[in-house]
Design a protein that fits this description.
The complex is a heterodimer of chains A (219) and B (474). With 219 residues, chain A is α/β, with parallel strands linked by helices. Helix content of chain A is 40%, strand content 22%. Chain A has 2 domains: 115 residues, Rossmann fold, CATH 3.40.50.2300; 66 residues, Arc Repressor Mutant, subunit A. The longest helix of chain A is centred in the middle third of the chain and has 14 residues. Chain B has 474 residues and is of the alpha+beta class. In chain B, the strands form 3 sheets. In chain B, strands 2-1-5-4-3 form a 5-stranded antiparallel beta sheet, covered by helices on one side. Chain B has a 5-stranded mixed beta sheet with strand order 7-9-10-12-11, with helices on one face. A two-stranded antiparallel sheet of chain B has the order 6-8. The chains are: A alpha/beta (219), B alpha+beta (474).
Chain lengths: 219, 474
């Protein structure tokens, strides 16, 4: 399992990230102090560090200086949104920069993107008897290949990465179609219906009233 | 045109005019005196000649009752020969002004003859070819005849002298003007140096270097101007520094505010999102809801505090005479429930002018801080907070002393800044927003007072302020 270290001086934020990443299938450790973070990085191995900048002990930039030679990918998570701060963070070698307040879906997507860049992401996603080979873009159900269009594949990936999470129509639309969402658009519903039919997920892809859809699977 | 060049040019123009005029006047004066002298000499000479003529006429044989023209010619030719070196130039005319005798080389016209009668002498200066002559005319009374004797005297020398004088003077003038220009250029550059220095200072300042000052090199009006300019620059620099500090403080405040705002917002949005999109078990739901609640509370506390500060900044506080006893009674009652702390109140009775509610806010904040600082302290007296009021020079001093963890020296000047927390994670766990001391500082500013902090890490802190006695203020 992929191990992620969360460093943020706010316990509520640590818990929030922890909960979401855990449900996305990662193993998380959270600390609230810069020096403690360095201690932990020395002792244990992490595939990714989520780092706040304003920290007691040693600030995020200091911690970053320490991490860089170790080659562990880092995503800064901070309230400092000015370009100069972002540039400073990225120049120090951070892989991404997430500004508070952030969307949970966004966080998961960024984490996934950075891990994939380092070839640390899970190459295979499974839900029930459906398996997705992300790199090969191959989908199988009970061992038999299933043909999906591009959009259907994108939708499926989103659902697989956010199992048991209700995904909003806006979010789905923005991520898959990369365009603005129109409230009366039926495109999304059509694609979800196609997906249900192709994967036999009539009962797994549940419509959530006034929200969107949720992939329900037993873990 | 440059000022120094203008200065040099105008000086040179005045100098040239003065030199030209005085030179012309002087040379001319010399010339005129010489000419006058020559004329005088000529007239004298012609008088002598006329006398000599008359004397010669006396020797004429008595057979003539009237001087005959032939004798006139004879005498005239003798007189002509009588001159030193080459003979005189003369001409003799009779009563009707008909010329009787003319010596060789006498070239003047007869312009003088009509002007002359037997009682007058006349003269004029004439020019013939390249030479100048004094032309005189006198009458001769000899042997019942009135004759007119004209002479010509060469005065070219005087004119040549004048021309030479002018040419010499021109040369001298040119030399004086040239050296004068060089000297004036030097002087002008010396005189305008303060202006150049000022100009440079102005440019430097305009370019943003507010620390640049013009060097004062004289005590005259320009020196004064430089001094005044530098004073103005000082005032300007001070103001700009103040402005920059203010802007920096504001930026810092905005940055801190944004950060403090975003953190609870992130939690609220994140947990609310989880609640609406995840199927959470009961424990996690409650935890999420709890976080939303506490973070919301934190935002609420922060916004109230901010409002307090804004109000404190804008409102003219209603100052009233207040019994210190009442203030302490209020505090004692308020902190009576805090059983785990030993808060000791001591005060001297006095009447102090203050806005009681605001001062209560300050003291409650300070005592709260003292309690928080004492909680984790290892000092033996920890748990004791002393609140004291006493009359001192210049007013009434209220102090809150604790034996808690203290404040590191480097942090002491920063703690009254908004959102500043010495130990952030610990302060947050007690729901502090880092605004308490900033609020206290604002309130004390209204009271024309300020917060004094004495603190040693590990030994405790003492926060105090002095309120002026009633009547002593405003």
């Amino acid at each position: 399992m992929i191990k992620i270290l969360i460093v943020d001086d706010e316990k509520p934020i640590c818990d929030l990230i922890d909960l979401n990443l855990t449900s996305a299938g990662y193993h998380c450790t959270a600390v609230q102090d810069g020096l403690e973070a360095i201690d932990l990085i020395e002792k244990e191995e992490f595939e990714l560090v989520l780092l706040d900048i304003m920290l007691p002990g040693a600030d995020g930039y200091d911690v970053m200086e320490y991490i860089r030679p170790l080659g562990i990918p880092v995503i800064f998570i901070t309230a400092k949104h000015e370009v100069k701060h972002r540039v400073k963070g990225l120049k120090l070698g951070a892989d991404d920069y997430l500004v508070k307040p952030f969307d949970v879906v966004e966080l998961v997507a960024r984490v996934e993107a950075v891990l994939r860049r380092y070839n640390k992401a899970e190459a295979h996603l499974t839900a029930g008897d459906v398996t997705v080979d992300v790199d090969a873009r191959r989908v199988t159900k009970a061992g038999r290949p299933v043909e999906l269009t591009n959009k259907e594949f994108g939708l499926l990936l989103l659902f697989m990465k956010n199992k048991n999470v209700a995904l909003f129509r806006e979010t789905l639309y923005e991520k898959v179609w990369e365009g603005e969402y129109f409230a009366d658009s039926r495109t999304l519903d059509l694609h979800v219906q196609r997906l249900r039919k192709k994967l036999g997920w009539e009962h797994n892809l549940v419509a959530v009233y006034k929200v969107g859809y949720r992939l329900e699977v037993q873990e | 045109m440059k000022f120094s060049i203008k200065l040099v040019l105008s000086t040179m123009i005045v100098l040239a005019l003065a030199l030209g005029f005085s030179g012309f006047y002087f040379v001319n004066y010399v010339f005129e005196t010489s000419l006058d002298r020559e004329v005088g000499q000529s007239l004298d000479e012609s008088s002598i000649l006329s006398f000599a003529f008359e004397t010669a006429a006396l020797n004429v044989p008595l057979k003539y009752s009237v001087l005959p023209d032939s004798v006139v010619e004879e005498i005239a030719s003798k007189l002509e020969m009588g001159g030193q070196g080459g003979g005189r130039l003369l001409r003799i005319a009779d009563e009707e002004k008909n010329v009787l005798y003319t010596s060789g080389g006498f070239t003047a016209d007869e312009g003088l003859l009509p002007q002359t009668d037997e009682h007058t002498k006349s003269y004029r200066v004439i020019r013939a070819q390249d030479s100048f002559y004094v032309h005189t005319c006198v009458s001769i009374n000899a042997l019942n005849r009135i004759l007119y004797l004209e002479t010509m005297k060469d005065v070219t020398g005087v004119f040549t002298e004048r021309a030479m004088g002018f040419s010499l003077y021109r040369k001298v003038t040119v030399v004086i003007l040239l050296t004068g220009t060089v000297i004036m250029l030097f002087i002008a550059s010396l005189l305008t140096k303060p202006i150049r220095l000022l100009t440079k200072a102005t440019r430097e300042m305009a370019a943003g270097d507010y620390t640049y000052r013009a060097r004062q090199i004289s005590r005259d009006e320009l020196g004064q101007l430089t001094g005044d300019f530098n004073r103005m620059a000082n005032a300007l620099e001070e103001n700009i520094c103040k402005l920059e500090e203010e802007i920096e403080a504001r930026e810092e405040f905005m940055g801190a505010f944004a950060h403090e705002l975003k953190t609870p917002l992130t939690a609220i949005i994140g947990y609310a999102d989880m609640l609406r999109s995840h199927k959470l078990d009961e424990e996690k739901s409650i935890m999420s809801a709890n976080y939303i609640y506490t973070e919301g509370k934190r935002l609420e506390a922060m916004s109230f505090r901010l409002l307090d500060i804004i109000v404190a900044k804008q409102d003219e506080a209603q100052m009233q005479e207040t019994q210190v006893g009442e203030l302490f009674a209020y505090l004692r009652e308020m902190f009576a429930e805090k059983k785990d702390m030993d808060i000791r109140f001591t005060h001297e009775d006095a009447v102090v002018r203050m806005e009681a509610n605001l001062i209560k806010t300050v003291l409650v904040n300070l005592i709260d801080n003292a309690c928080k600082a004492s909680e984790t302290s290892a000092v033996s007296e920890a748990g004791v907070v002393e609140v004291s009021g006493q009359t001192v020079d210049g007013g009434y001093r209220i102090a809150v002393r604790d034996y808690g963890i203290g404040i590191p020296e480097a942090e002491q000047s920063k703690i009254v800044k908004a959102f500043y927390m010495v130990d952030k994670s610990r302060a947050r766990s007690k729901n502090g927003a880092g605004l308490g001391l900033a609020l206290c500082a604002e309130i004390l500013k209204i009271h024309h007072s300020r917060l004094q902090i004495e603190s040693k890490e590990g030994e405790g802190s003492c926060f105090s302020f002095i309120l002026a006695h009633s009547g002593g203020m405003d």
